[in-house]
Amino acid sequence: MQPKSNIVHLPVYQPGKPIEDVKRELGLTEVIKLASNENPFGCSELAKAAAIKELDQVHLYPDGGSVELGAELARALGVNTDQLIFGTGSSDIILMLARAFLAPGDETIMADETFSQYKHNAEVENARIIEVPLKEGKHDLPAMLAKITERTKIVWVCNPNNPTGTIVTKPELSAFLSQVPKHVLVVLDEAYCEFVVDPEYPDGLELLSEHRNLVLLRTFSKIYGLSSMRIGYGVGHPDVIRFINQVREPFNTSRMAQAAAKAAIGDKAFVERCRQENAAGIAYLSDRFEKLGLPYFPAHGNFILVDVKRPSTEVFDALLRKGIITRPRWTYYPTYIRVSIGTQEQNEKFIAALEQVLQESAVHG
Ligand SMILES: Cc1ncc(COP(=O)(O)O)c(C=O)c1O
């Protein structure tokens, strides 16, 4: 057997450690997962009820085109239905974009470091990957612009960026977009946009009419709390959306996911509560990190990248033994862990555990 040579060395995606694994491996009964930027408040009750109801139709294939969900979402976003594409999470849209736009040898530009799946899918397509270092944890848009050539097909901008949580501002993004040549697709990943409260944050939707070469990625996995339903979407010019649709698997989103997402859009109160709780959680954790003397990046999503000033895997392991799962091992930030914002109770437990871990390591180290 001979797979494509460019995939042989590819790592398998390493997700946040599952709660069940930690309980089993460490014999713990209570485990808090702050590793995958999930919503600690669950999902809207309306979404849950809609998914359960839809189980009655489980024997029937879903609507591959997600027409009903598309109509509801188009209304909510103020776009046309032909500007929307749905995927098995926004990860699926990333995969489809790479599949539709990247041929072997094509160039694609992304930050270093950022969400791993841009690079992963570009590698599967054997594209040439150009990574541009972050500047103080932020996308360096002028440096990314300078890397564009005739062969560039896609530039990826993650806003807020995962793992740093930083944002590019409206003027920065507008200046960038106005200089990107029209043959280059800009993918603006807004997976965490609903959490952002900073007035400087650009709303990608407002930029779409000016830039036909812009596609937004959004998801129901984060603020909507529907991670395991696996549903996300892209918004862009109908021509671009059509290309993505041409490489889409026929039934890539389930009936339950479509029903849950449709109901979730209608539950604005749930989203608003989560946004507020998240902002309060960021304020709490930022304050505690300052008191502990730990540098951190200004957080705009539902996670914070914090410098624990020791090898991150050591702190990760010690926290794990106390039943708290975080995310270590960042290429450029070997002493940082990424922690998702939890409920206030979870945040307090995390800080208490972190304080203990830091003290223990100060004594033993
Ligand atoms: C920046 C970013 N984009 C996309 C995704 C993919 O999310 P999903 O496939 O669940 O929609 C994630 C998940 O963590 C992410 O952090």
Keywords, separated by commas or semicolons:
single chain; 365 residues; alpha/beta; Aspartate Aminotransferase, domain 1; Aspartate Aminotransferase, domain 2; 2 domains; 7-stranded mixed sheet; two-stranded parallel ribbon; 11 strands; 15% strand; globular; binds pyridoxal-5'-phosphate
What do these coordinates show?
With 365 residues, this protein is α/β, with parallel strands linked by helices. It folds into 2 domains: 5-42 and 269-364, Alpha-Beta Complex (Aspartate Aminotransferase, domain 1); 45-266, Type I PLP-dependent aspartate aminotransferase-like (Major domain) (Aspartate Aminotransferase, domain 2, 3-Layer(aba) Sandwich), CATH 3.40.640.10. It has 13 helices and 11 strands. It has a 7-stranded mixed sheet, with helices on both faces. Strands 1-10 form a two-stranded parallel ribbon. A two-stranded antiparallel sheet has the order 9-11. Helix 7 (170-179) links the parallel strand 5 (152-158) and strand 6 (185-189). The longest helix has 25 residues, at 268-292. The mean pLDDT is 96. Pyridoxal-5'-phosphate is lined by residues 37, 89-91, 115, 158, 162, 189, 191, 219, 221, 227, 232.
Q: How does the SSE layout of this entry go?
A:
Elements lengths: L18 H8 L5 E2 L11 H10 L12 H11 L6 E4 L2 H12 L5 E6 L3 H9 L3 E6 L7 H6 L5 E7 L11 H10 L5 E5 L14 H4 L6 E6 L12 E5 L1 H9 L8 H12 L1 H25 L10 E5 L4 H10 L2 E2 L10 E5 L3 H21 L1
Helix pairs in contact: 2-10, 3-10, 4-5, 4-9, 11-13
This protein binds pyridoxal-5'-phosphate (PLP).
